[in-house]
User: Which sequence fits this backbone?
């Protein structure tokens, strides 16, 4: 069993990339986080808006749970 405290730290610092999900063995969800972050990052460049912060908020909530 993986350490949930370590996963929480990964979620706080590398959350939008899905590193905490890869650490916990949830590869499909980890890939989703990484792809969603890239897509939102590209969308935020085109829209000149911090849309990528959505994934940061999701990973912060993930770290608290």
Assistant:
């Amino acid at each position: 069993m993986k350490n949930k405290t370590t996963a929480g730290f990964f979620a706080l610092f590398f959350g939008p990339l899905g590193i905490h999900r890869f650490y916990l063995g949830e590869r499909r969800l980890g890939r989703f986080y990484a792809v969603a972050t890239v897509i939102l990052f590209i969308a935020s460049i085109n829209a000149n808006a911090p849309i990528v912060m959505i994934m940061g908020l999701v990973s912060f909530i993930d770290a608290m749970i």
Observations:
- Residues 4-64 form one domain.
